[in-house]
Write a structure and sequence with these properties.
Helix content: 40-55%
Number of helices: 32
Low-confidence stretches: 46-50, 270-274
Number of strands: 20
Strand order of the largest sheet: 2-4-3-10-7-9-8-5
Length: about 900
């Protein structure tokens, strides 16, 4: 069953921050976050005078918290680059350099997915988080990170998530109407972030306890139809023995972590109503300081004076002056006892005074706080029921088939020793498998780490082959090869491990991005494997990882992307086909004699020989000579990948192919010099490659003449006009020589063969000989028609803000192709590519590297490539559309991944058996 789900037009940043020394949390929030980081970013995003920025965006609200961090910062955002790259300490945006170099932080990036396009959680929460001093109605906040039971999530995707959201909202409406509840999708390790606002801690505690104990039975009561479907499609390992499992009492969540707090202005907001008293439970506030050695006496004397000044009686104070495990000091008080005093103490004022004790850290190093709601009558505990543990589903049993056993690792050690691998590298490789086993057996992680199983399995086989084969390359090259893939695996491991429940107490140490990216990197990895699988490379021994390198790189086992492909997924969608086809024609077509000419060892030598003797080749022409010198196997592989990408990935849409080809070039900083000028040689190579693809079309000469005086971008006009004619003439030579071996027909037929699976349901009853040319023409026409129809349908989904699924007529292979194509086409359309005006697509910068916006606003397209990397948009309405379309893309591939990954896991287990 499929339901329609819609995306909000902006997201939520949640920053969890520890305040540095010598400053209060409120002062730090106002000066560092509100005044500096957020306001400066907001001002940089300002549009022209006729198109003012959205004031509610990047306008943060602060909450003091009880937990590993001091502050929670909530802000509406319309750009994934802000939480993932901009929000960090020492961001270079302050006017002074006196403080704030040592604060710890973590980032949650949340989006709004709803089952009704008319529901707008963003506008509701916007009203609350923009409440300022004197207007806070519900000062208590609780932020809960939820990991959904993967046994239910796998096979069901967004349907499972949205059904759980509906159950949470019904719990809120039926039992806790006094709480304002917001449920958002998280892009990190946990799938959901739940934000509640209330007037007291007790109601939040009761709701949180009840929420953590929700079961499938609660889901069934909320939506029986969806629940039945979810149970039918949940993860089901085919080789497992059928066990007596009570699925109705299975819990919906495998992990939950809550961070309570209160509005930063609560201690000043005398007009708000704080209903803090509760007869059935009471709030205990606990403070623990890490005392510097030798400072305990000074700390105790000064702290007791503080308590006396704030009206505390010794009878209601719990102090532990000495602990054996570390030099810490603990203090806690029960707020219900304070209320019984003749002169009750203002809770928020007292908490603030204690929080600000020893700000300069003369005696202490760190303050940790926690809030406990006592439950003497067991009212909270008795609100939920016990489970029968023997019938409870256990995730460990579902991943046993993709664990590397002791004997397997023993064999691996033997292969490494027989291969004479160094001790350092040998232990590192074995630790790699140990880390994988640790995470694959964790119910929080196994769907993400299943991405790496195929590679690790293949890795053992290749080490074994080296150990048992004497006719191999040198040991030095083998060590280099091993080191390369261990390093790549380590990056992929941290991609999936970073900022999860295992690193919750750590600051955001990753130097390449902020926050977790598990729900983006894993679907990208899955899509990459699916494409490879569909085009005939039926192995899952490759994986995707994010690194700090700007350039995308594909090897035998890895696909390396950078963070910009996450924050601007159009860069991933526009490069994926070229990277997929880089090795395809060599690896998959090695037995096809038709391609033997292009794969022969002497091909490059022969090609250059023919070019040099061609009647139109002019070696005195600088461009001819440069392009001639540039011809090598890498360039030819690139041309073939471009060709297959054009025919298959872009469905012969040259305008889209060219647009995104140039956009990728123009946002790559490594292709510019210090003065911001595009490298002329790189430009010539890119022009040659795009013209080569253009020459594959019929009526080539007429189209080439049109292109000659129509640069793809006005900012490229000078380079374009100076090099177009010479580049074009060289491309004609190259095409002519390549066609001696029937280049165009060979690779067009190759791409059409890939289309068979796309439209299999349309051709199953056709009796034509599959070698007949009419059959290929038929396949091509059917796929082209299906591609256009599906793309048009998906464009409507992007316009409506609707999540996209494969349909009955759109199988998984065609779904991926059309999803990518429609996403790129939608961005082109909102960027103004349908009008005839010639505007630059590149953001111009001054000599200091600052964007030049207002001076050139009438010359700019609506969506710009930033020469320093990424995409820049100066129109607030277009930016919101960009954000929404990127989110639709993310959630569509996430849903596709979660629904289909269970088949991949079963595939692994079958092969391992």
């Amino acid at each position: 069953m499929e339901k329609s789900f819609y995306i909000g037009n902006c997201g939520i940043l949640i920053g969890l921050v520890s305040t540095p020394r010598c400053i209060t949390s409120k002062d730090f929030f106002e000066s560092e976050i509100e005044k500096n980081l957020s306001s400066i970013y907001r001002n940089r995003r300002a549009d022209n005078q006729n198109n003012q920025r959205n004031e509610y965006l990047y306008n943060p609200s602060g909450y003091k918290t009880f937990g590993n961090h001091d502050l929670a910062i909530l802000s509406l955002i319309d750009d994934y680059s802000y939480p993932n790259r901009v929000f960090h300490p020492a961001h270079g945006n302050r006017d002074t350099d006196s403080l704030f170099h040592n604060y710890e932080y973590q980032i949650l990036t949340c989006i709004d997915t709803v089952s009704n396009s008319e529901i707008n959680n963003i506008s509701r929460i916007q009203t609350i988080i923009n409440e300022k001093k004197g207007s806070v109605k519900k000062p208590i906040i609780c932020i809960t990170r939820i990991k959904i039971n993967n046994l239910l999530l796998l096979g069901n995707g967004l349907l499972c998530i949205e059904s759980i959201k509906q159950t949470l909202h019904k719990l809120n409406e039926n039992e806790f109407p006094e709480i304002d509840l917001f449920v958002f999708d998280n892009l990190g390790s946990e799938e959901l972030v739940i934000i509640t606002f209330s007037k007291n801690f007790s109601s939040v505690a009761k709701f949180t306890h009840k929420m953590r104990h929700l079961t499938v039975d609660d889901l069934n009561k909320s939506d029986s139809e969806s629940c039945s479907f979810i149970l039918e499609n949940k993860l089901n390992i085919e080789s497992m023995k059928k066990e007596d499992i009570d699925w109705m009492n299975a819990h919906l969540f495998s992990s939950s972590y809550s961070l309570p707090g209160y509005n930063i202005y609560s201690d000043q907001d005398t007009d708000s109503i704080f209903d803090m008293e509760d007869n059935s439970s009471s709030v205990i506030i606990d403070f623990t300081w890490d005392i510097k050695p030798g400072h305990a006496n000074n700390f105790e004397n000064e702290f007791r004076k503080l308590l006396a000044d704030n009206g505390f009686d010794e009878q209601i104070v719990s102090v532990e002056p000495f602990r054996m495990n570390n030099s810490s000091w603990n203090f806690s008080f029960n707020y219900s006892l304070l209320l019984k005093k003749s002169n009750p103490i203002d809770l928020f004022r007292v908490i603030e005074n204690i929080r600000n004790f020893d700000l300069d850290q003369h005696h202490t190093r760190k303050l940790s706080m926690k809030m406990v709601v006592s439950d003497p009558q067991h009212e909270i505990l008795n609100s939920t029921k016990e489970i029968v543990i023997d019938k409870h589903p256990k995730s460990f049993s579902y991943c046993e088939g993709i664990i590397f056993s002791g004997p397997e690792l023993g064999n691996l050690r033997q292969y490494l020793e027989k291969s004479k691998v160094s001790k350092l590298l040998k232990e590192k490789i074995l630790k790699m498998y140990n880390n994988y086993n640790s995470c694959i057996t964790d119910p929080m992680y196994f769907p993400n780490f299943a991405d790496l199983y195929g590679f690790l399995k293949s890795f053992i086989k290749q080490i074994k082959d080296f150990a048992e084969n004497t006719n191999v390359e040198s040991s030095f090259k083998f060590h280099e090869w091993l080191n390369q893939y261990v390093t790549s695996f380590e990056q992929a491991y941290y991609n999936r491990f970073h900022q999860s429940n295992r690193t919750r107490n750590m600051t955001d140490y990753n130097i390449e991005w902020n926050g977790g990216v598990q729900q983006m990197i894993s679907p990208i990895d899955f899509i990459y494997k699916q494409i490879l699988f569909h085009i005939g490379l039926r192995q899952y021994d490759k994986f995707v990882h994010i690194s700090g390198f700007e350039r995308v790189h594909v090897t035998q086992h890895t696909f390396r992307i950078n963070m910009l492909h996450i924050t601007y997924p159009e860069l991933f969608a526009s490069t994926i086909w070229k990277e997929v086809f880089n090795f395809y024609w060599r690896d998959h077509l090695e037995k096809d004699s038709s391609f033997s000419f292009f794969k022969s060892e002497n091909f490059i030598t022969h090609l250059k020989y023919c070019i040099e003797r061609h009647r139109h080749f002019n070696k005195t022409n600088a461009i001819h000579q440069f392009l001639y010198d540039s011809i090598d196997s890498q360039l030819v592989n690139g041309l073939i990948a471009d060709t297959l990408s054009y025919y298959y990935g872009y469905n012969e849409d040259y305008d889209s192919f060219s647009y995104w080809y140039w956009r990728v070039l123009q946002q790559s900083s490594m292709y510019y010099d210090k003065l911001g000028r595009l490298d002329s040689k790189i430009f010539t190579l890119f022009l040659g490659r795009t013209l080569f693809v253009r020459s594959l079309e019929d009526n080539d000469e007429k189209e080439m003449e049109k292109l000659r005086f129509n640069p793809t971008d006005t900012v490229l006009s000078e380079l374009w006009l100076n090099s177009f004619e010479d580049t074009r003439s060289f491309v004609k030579i190259l095409r002519e020589i390549m066609d001696w071996s029937n280049y165009r027909e060979l690779f067009k037929k190759c791409s059409i063969r890939l289309m068979e699976e796309d439209v299999q349901q349309h051709i199953s009853q056709i009796s034509m000989d599959k070698k007949d040319i009419n059959y290929l023409s038929y396949i091509h026409s059917i796929r082209t028609q299906a591609f256009k129809i599906e793309k048009d349908n998906l464009l409507k989904c992007f316009e409506e803000g609707k999540i996209i699924y494969p349909t009955a007529t759109n199988n998984s292979n065609l779904f991926i192709s059309t999803l990518f194509a429609s996403f790129l086409e939608y961005l082109r359309s909102i960027g103004g590519e349908n009008d005839n005006s010639k505007k630059t697509h590149v953001l111009l910068r001054d000599d200091g590297g600052k964007p030049i916006v207002k001076e050139y606003e009438n010359c700019y397209s609506k969506i710009l490539s930033d020469p320093l990397g990424g995409i820049f948009c100066i129109d607030k309405d277009i930016q919101l559309k960009c954000f929404k379309s990127r989110t639709i893309f993310y959630r569509s591939i996430f849903d596709y991944c979660m629904k289909n990954k269970k088949e991949q896991i079963n595939y692994f287990i079958k092969k391992s058996n």
